[in-house]
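Our collaborator T.R. sent over the components below with a one-line note: 'Predict the complex.' Nothing else. No constraints on interfaces, no templates requested, no preferences about which chain binds where. So this is a plain run: every listed entity goes in together, and whatever single assembly comes back becomes the starting point for the next discussion.
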Amino acid sequence: DGGITQSPKYLFRKEGQNVTLSCEQNLNHDAMYWYRQDPGQGLRLIYYSQIVNDFQKGDIAEGYSVSREKKESFPLTVTSAQKNPTAFYLCASSGGEADTQYFGPGTRLTVL
Amino acid sequence: GDSVTQMEGPVTLSEEAFLTINCTYTATGYPSLFWYVQYPGEGLQLLLKATKADDKGSNKGFEATYRKETTSFHLEKGSVQVSDSAVYFCALSEWGATNKLIFGTGTLLAVQP
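Returned assembly:
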């Protein structure tokens, strides 16, 4: 089955620790995206990558970092510099229909 | 910059009622428009899309028409079911190379039996 997987589904970390969220896709899509969702709000773009070994900041990149070493993988690191990291994180990808993004199931991060 | 405004929820309906969720947008160029649906604790699923003016997107009984003259993309369904209860997001894809999605704040739909 083709799709996007995110792991883990729930993640708990202590304040001050870095944490890395996984995103893998087997859709052969070139572009991948990370969004943050807070209660009662829309999604906000953190980082995106349109091709391997290249990525750009989105609207709320401060306190986050990414890498794109492989086409199928786009991990997101939430660093200790992120002031309010508790949120629901969604990964997406797009391919042949470049304007259409498909989403993974999300990771809920709680910082204690 | 580009933006999407959708009606605030929650929208509470009885089963088999008619549904409308309003969405208007502000954009430069010729964006594509989307409706996504999110069930509790899950990611977003693409519900339907339209890529140019007067296009109608449809899926699972839901419809939306790209109205450039009113900059709107309202979601409609003739007869809702309890299983349609979810949060619905209107979004546009920015015109140009980045294809960034701009989302509305979401509308919670609750359908009662």
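Summary for T.R.: The radius of gyration of chain A is 13 Å.
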